[in-house]
Amino acid sequence: MLKKTNHLLLLFIFATCINSGQQKIKVPEWYSNPPKMEGKVYATGMSGNGRLLSLATALIELSKLSELSNIGDINIQSMTKDFSQEQEGGNHEYFEQVKKVIYSKQNSSILIAEVYQQTDLGNNIQYEGNISITYNNADYSDVVKELESLGIEIKIYFDDKFYYTLLEVPESALNKK
Question: Which of 68, 69, 84, 122 has the highest local Cβ count within 10 Å?
Fold first, then answer.
């Protein structure tokens, strides 16, 4: 009887371990299908590296949607280089994307910079990227307060792996300097 109980216990533990590895990531509906409402602009962001980077991704999307580079005290920059060069043995293609979100108010600032590069040398493709964050007397809550002071609503969701951010922006907030 004791042997049978031990086998059942081991079977239970084994089944629990297998099922725990199959946990599904639940992406919020508003991330996959952002809301649409007249007079508002919606932008989403996602990051596996923290809520600040998720917010920065949403701000970059908002900048693209609204064609603005400044939202209150937040400056958003995005630049892409893409070129191809013929060389012996084929084409050499290069792609670089640089994104920056800069919050600056009085003597406080945050600089979030992301650089992504792809080099294609025929059959050899190389990827390289890095993210840097520089804090100076400011943090995530300061950026959130700035956005909220402009009437921007922020929704954030964490699924144990990724942070998802939704920005709901009244069009009137996009006209403020």
Answer: 68
Please check whether residue 65 is in contact with residue 76, taking contact to mean a CB–CB distance below 8 angstroms. Answer: no
Residue 153 lies in a domain: yes
Q: Which residues have a Cβ under 8 Å from the Cβ of 118 and sit 6 or more positions away?
A: 94, 95, 96, 125, 126, 127, 128
Spatial CB neighbours of 67, under 8 Å, sequence gap ≥ 6: none
Please state the domain count of the chain. Answer: 1
CA-closest candidate to residue 156, choices 55, 63, 24: 55
Q: Is residue 22 part of a domain?
A: no
Domain that holds residue 45: 40-171
* 44, 165 contact by CB (below 8 A): yes
Q: Is the separation of the CB atoms in 147 and 76 below 8 Å?
A: no
Q: How far is CA 74 from the centre of its chain?
A: 16
Low-confidence ranges of the chain (pLDDT < 70): 1-25, 89, 176-177
Cα Rg, the chain, nearest whole Å: 23
Amino acid in position 135: Y
Q: What's the predicted TM-score (pTM) here?
A: 0.76
Tokens 């701000």 locate to 59
Q: And the tokens for 156?
A: 């954030």
Run of H or E residues at 11: helix 2-20
